[in-house]
Model the fold of this input.
Amino acid sequence: MLQLLQQTQGRVAPTAIICYNGNMARGAIDTLLREHYRVPTDFTVVAGDASRVCFEEEPIITNAGPSPEKLGQVAADLLLRSTGADEESFTDLVLASQLHLGETSATPVRGVGARRASIQLPTN
Done:
């Protein structure tokens, strides 16, 4: 998160940060707040899952994903029905997802009329 903030200094910064899961979103929010940014006024932050961390602390994180409980039930059912055959090693599942609007998303104020910005963070 700090790399993103450093890369955008003096440039048009993204208005939203889409995180893989709630833990990453919580870390991004904590960093933004520590650096004196306002969430969601300066940055919208959302999570790609509906894990507990999205709901347990303030601000409540806007998130989208399947119910963790339902995912666990389906995974347990797959394990119980498994015979151990190699062709059963990988199973694609499609579970219904829900959008939970929290306190970390809003229409960007500074994004009106601004050009789009996309920044790739290094993977190392």
